[in-house]
Structures are given as C-alpha cells and as structure tokens.
Amino acid sequence: MNILGLSAYYHDSAACLVRDGKIVAAAQEERFSRKKHDAGFPLQSLTWCLEQACLSSDDLDAVVFYEKPFLRFERLLETYLAFAPRGLKQFLTALPVWMKEKIWIKEAIRKHLDYQGPIYFPEHHQSHAASAFFPSPFEESAVLTLDGVGEWSTVSFGRGCGNRLDLLGEIRFPHSLGLLYSAFTYYLGFKVNSGEYKVMGLAPYGEPRYVQRIRDEIIDLKEDGSFRLNMDYFNFATGLTMTNERFHKLFEGPPRKPESELTMRDMDLARSIQVVTEEAVLRMGHHVHQETGSPHLCMAGGVALNCVANGRLLREGPFEKIWVQPASGDAGAAVGAALFGWYVAHDKERKVQGGLDSMAGSYLGPDYSEEAIGTILDKYQAPRQRLEEASLLKRTAELLASGQVVGWFQGRMEFGPRALGNRSILADARSPEMQTRVNLKIKFREGFRPFAPAIREERVRDYFDHDAESPYMLLTAQVKAEKLRRLTEEESQLSGLARLRVARSEIPAVTHVDNSARLQTVSAVMNPLFHNLLLEFERLTGCPVLINTSFNVRGEPIVCTPEDAYRCFMGTGMDYLVVGPFLLDKRLQPEWQGPSGAKELD
Prior knowledge:
Elements: E1 2-7, E2 14-19, E3 22-28, H1 30-33, H2 43-52, E4 62-65, H3 69-83, H4 88-102, H5 105-113, E5 119-120, H6 124-133, E6 140-146, E7 153-161, E8 164-172, H7 177-187, H8 196-202, H9 211-218, E9 219-221, E10 227-229, H10 245-250, H11 264-292, E11 296-300, H12 307-316, E12 321-324, H13 330-345, H14 370-379, E13 385-386, H15 389-401, E14 406-409, E15 423-428, H16 434-442, E16 452-456, H17 460-463, E17 476-478, H18 489-492, E18 516-518, E19 520-522, H19 528-541, E20 545-550, H20 562-570, E21 576-579, E22 582-585
Parallel strand pairs: 1-4, 4-5, 6-11, 11-12, 14-21, 16-19
Antiparallel strand pairs: 1-2, 2-3, 6-7, 7-8, 9-10, 13-22, 14-15, 15-20, 16-20, 17-18, 21-22
C-alpha cells in the first residue's frame, strides 16, 4: 500500500511517501525550488517521492493532506467576526488567496497528480501528533504538540499506544506559545517562521529582566501549563504585524530594525521570552505526564524545535525518555499525514523495531550516483581528485585538523531543518576563531549564532553531561566541567556580545556562552561514513568533535543536488568540497562567475 502525505500553503511545504508503513521518501519543496520556506503546492517534492519509489499516481492507495482547509477557513472567518471591525485589512488581504487556492486542496491534488483515489484530511495537530508518535521508538507514549496555530489548536496533548493515537486536550487560537515566541522574534527584528532560532541563540547573552513583566502583562501561565495571552498587546489576530503600539510601549521602544546593531535590551528580551517559554513547556510536560502516566514523551510542532526547552524538559521533567520529530514543523506534518493514512485511516498494525525510531536517521531525501556527480562537475570544468573511501576520510580529517573548512555532500539528503552529516559544512571545533569565521565568511550570518557539535555516540559522555542519544540536534547539553577552561577575571566581567570571543572549553567553537551545546550524536548504524570521519579525526587529533552546520548560506535552503553544492562552495569562503568520492580544492577551481554571499535576508 502506497500513501502520499502532503503539507502546503503556509510555510515549508513537503511531501512524504509511506509504503506498507515504512517511510521511503520525504523532502521539502524548498530544496527543489531553491526558495527558502517555500509554501507552494509541493509538486516537485511529491514528483521526486514517486520517482524514488518508481511509482505513478495510479499506484497510490491514498493521499493525505495534513489539515482540514475548511476548518482553518472557519477560524479566519470567526476571528474576523470576533474582532470586527478591526482586522478588515487582514481579512481582505487573506480572502482572495483562500478563494483562489487554499480552500480547494482536493481539486489541486487531483489536478496536479491526475489522481482519482481517496483523499484524507486529518486535523493539523493530529498530523503533528502522528509525526511524533508513529515513527518514535516507543510502543506507547504521551504526545505533546506545540506550534503557532493549526485550524484552531495551538497546543495539544494525548497518548499513543500501538496504532491508536488519542488527543485528550488542547489550547486554542489566539492563545499560542508559538505565536508569542514569534511576536518577540518580530519585535527583535528577525523574520517570523525563520528567525526564532536566532532568538534562542541570542538569549544566553542577555539577562531575564523582563520575565516578570511578561508574566504580569502578556501571558497568564497556570501551574498545569495552560495559559492565556493578553490580546491587547498583539496584532496577529487582526492586523498584518505581530505586535502593536501597546506592546512597544510596554518594552520601551519600537521593534528593532532588521540588521541594526543588537543592544543589551534586545538580548535581555530574547533571554526573557526564552525563560518564559521553557517554563511553559516544563509545566505542560508535568501536566501531560500526570494525565497519561507514561514514562515516555513524543513531541512535534514548531515550538518542539526549541532544543533548549527540550533539553530542560529532559533534565528536569518527569519523563525517562523524550523523542522529538526531527522535522517538527509543517514539513514534518507531511510525514504525520502519511502515517495517519496507514495506521489510523487503514487501521494497520504498528510494530516498533528494536527500540529504534523509523525515521532512518532523517536521511530520506535524494541521493546522487558517482556518475551524476561527475557530470555536474564536468559541466563546471571543476578539477577534482577521486579517492577511495579510506583515503577520502583520512585526507578530509587532515584538512579539518589543519583549520580548513570543508563542504561535505554524501548520500541521501536530510529531511527537516538540520544537516546531519550528509549536507553539512564541517570544521574543527577546537579553534577559538572558527565560530566567527564560519558565521561571517561562509554562512554570511550573525556572528553570535551557535554551531552544533557532532560526536560519535559512544564518546558523548566524555564531553557532555548527557546520557541519551541526540541524533537530530534537538536537545542541548552542558559541556562537562573538566572540558571547560577557567575564565580570567576580565573575561568573567564581559557582557553582551563581547562574551562571544571568549574561548570557554576545549571545543570553543561549539560551546555557547552558557557552556551549552546543541548536540548531535552520530551512530555507526545510521551514518557509518560520517561516523568514520569523526573516528579518523579523533585518531589524528585526539578530539572526537567536529562543527556540523548546514550546507547553505543565509537566505538559501540547504543544498540538494551536486550542482547546488558546487555553487555554494564557489560562492563562499569554504576551502574544500567533498562530494561523493571527489575532493575539490578551492584554489584549483576556475574563476567563479556566479553569485557570492547571501541571497537575501532571512
């Protein structure tokens, strides 16, 4: 049985193909269109999914769209009526788009696929919950989903067992933890649905001096994690911005202009909203545990990408184990939709295999043969050296150890927002200058953005206070005390972004200012090639840790094809490119005539 799951029309459109309960292909539309966070109908990604499985639309048994369009449209209408006459401009802006395409999903699916079979429409948070529980390694689990808003729900919780998934409670729009965080993202001058990572990364540079003000004025947070927002401070229900003048007055000024200098107030605001978010997630976790009695928790939704909150929930919360969907946002809801079609709509048996999740390491996208890679490199007349695997790993490790930055393109592309060792930029975590160099000269983004350490899973306890796997970079952990260096008195007195250039540990390029790290543990089973590269680097240097950041520049999606990789390599300050078995030295390449630097502000 072949089931196609789709998400579209808001942000991060995607497609996923499930065959007899197994996820065989999944990809975001942005990787093909090269338009970051592409929200359009995912025609290219669904076409690739079908081609990957050698199928046509005639072979599909069901198509599942990740939400109920008419229910979402109902929310739009009811929100306008509730706030009328405020919100008229927003309503008149949204209505034509709805009437033209968003409400006619079934017709669009039939047209684009030439498909006449059954189409299912689970609710948005059902799809998120399905994406969290069904691929998880647990036979039974509590489930928590948190995002901006679906049709009506912004938070839901429930319990999964076998092939059953029962949602037991919810919080409804306009009260939304995701929209609250996005409001501060907007206020701090970053782009909503893209810049939330920046707020999380900026938070440790500030102090939580606005926490009480947020609790007193903005959010009424209960002990069980339920909450209500004071809508007098927000504009997202009735306008085209997230915050209003009352919000700006409360926090002593207008929204920060994008690209302007960050102030201590900005950093303090980021820290404050991060603290409030973590507290809300912790309280929700305790309530969900109390209601379900499960020792396990599965999470999805955009807020579940907040790895700092996830890390606190694992360390301080009531659950023995937590599993977070690696594509927790709307893209991952395509996976949930397809699995909903298999387990719920068709009532198929669910079996957990050996305590492993069924996301295949999230390596679910396209891969390319040596021949296909060679054809692309020939197109650009790119000099390269072909190496056997052992020699390739040894040479790459030597380059990294000597301070070179390497683009690493191997195997199947990752599904979700993180590069996990197949579409990655790699560098030496021991270098105090490497964080700033990679951010400014290669990624073309803010220097404060932290990088993830990739480490073989068998070595993680030697460097981090962490006893669990973290294959998807969705948990933070503290660097072990014995790996930290003692700061000088002068260094200890620094504040704000001045703290950025202080080396804090033996692996300073991946140690954030609060001595935390967004951890990726690498398994020899899930990614043997990347695991062996880490092993080769450790043999050479004694250090088992590399910087792993996504293979892209600011404003562009992660690379998908060998051509994407070569163009990104040539347009940035990367020193070497490893693509399949080929090693390319930047110094030997023809003069680059294409674009350089960031495509656009993100």
